[in-house]
Amino acid sequence: MSTAAVIRIKPYFYIHVLDNNTNVTRVEVGPQTFTRQDHEKLVSGPDAMIMVPPRHYCIIQNPVQRDSKGNVLRDSAGQIKNRHGDEEVRFEQEPFPLYPGEKLFGKVSPLQVVAPNTALKLRATRDLVYKGTKYIAGDEWLFKGPNTYVPQVEVQVVEIVQARVIKPLQALRLRAKKQFTDANGTVRKAGEEYLNKDIGAYIPNVDEEVTETVNAYVLTEKKALALRAKQTFTDNFGKLRKAGEEWLVTIKDAESHIPDISEQVVGEVPVTILSSREYCVIIDPVVDGKHLLGTRELRKGEVSFFLKPGEKLEAGIQKVHVLESEEALLLRARELYADKTETRRPGDRWMIYGPCDY
Fold first, then answer.
1. What is the C-alpha to C-alpha distance for residues 142 and 155, in angstroms, rounded to an integer?
2. Beta carbons of 135 and 128 less than 8 angstroms apart
3. What is the helix, strand, coil percentage profile of the chain, to 5?
4. How far, in Å, CA of 256 to CA of 215, rounded?
5. What average pLDDT does range 213-241 have in this prediction?
6. Is pLDDT of 108 > 70?
7. Where do the DSSP E strands lie in 11-139?
8. ∠183-185-187 over CA atoms, to 5°?
9. Under a CB-based contact definition with an 8 Å cutoff, are residues 45 and 36 in contact?
10. How does pLDDT run across 16-51, given as a tens digit for each residue?
11. How far apart, in whole angstroms, are the C-alpha atoms of residue 58 and residue 107?
């Protein structure tokens, strides 16, 4: 620090001078040649003024107080008034000096540019009105790009949020952190899970989190999807499903299927194909949506079908019996039924003679 009586202050430089008679520190700005008096002391400087270029900003700690016209306020002793413990963001302007008590926090930085498909997660550190919306301390919201973020001392940047790209045959599984209204106007309760199937970039709200990306199951003529309801709900096809109910989704319903939040995938079911020389017996068949437990159903080829949940093949796919002219089959009835000729009782035996198919 210079102790010379004459101090040459260059343009855009400044010094702080303490008057020992009044104990008040003042600012002297260049260009000038300053002659120090005996009762004056050079506190700091010469220092370069703060220069904020276009699209930049700086943060000043303990800023001075100003009136409505921008003039610096002073107390009765002539000392400059500061807003101690506070901060002020200053943008592009003419070079300015730091008044006594003021400090530059960090350095002059460029304004943050928010790229497309990204957003800034902001949090209010004190009550404020931001772009016409009132926020209280602790509130969070998103500042979406493309845009330039202009900082405020009342707002803290928490993190940068990247958009999640939803491709065709995909969905995002989301969970609400607290009750809020989503972009579609639906009220979501805390802990509620739901799917977003809109194709494109999606930026999650501050009140929701992405749990996983759900891929669709592609259905074909040879593959179906077995589902189970976790709870009672109405599925995507408008059908009411009760908790624990199981059903199939085939290509007749949709070409692809994304399991709903209330749906559990039991597995993929391959098609069962019977030729003209084959047959099978279905145990516990499903007829008209009802499970007929303890019954059997005979199915003959040519036919193709999917085994519905709960249905089983008794002995797999079986071949048709071909009887020649000198062959016969001895049969016994398991239950009461009527064939082409007469009614058979359980335990009845009879013969079928060839040549024929059975």
1. 12
2. yes
3. 0, 55, 45
4. 10
5. 92
6. yes
7. 13-19, 24-29, 32-35, 40-48, 50-52, 56-61, 87-90, 93-96, 103-110, 112-114, 118-124, 128-130, 133-135
8. 105
9. no
10. 999 888 889 999 998 999 888 888 888 887 999 999
11. 6
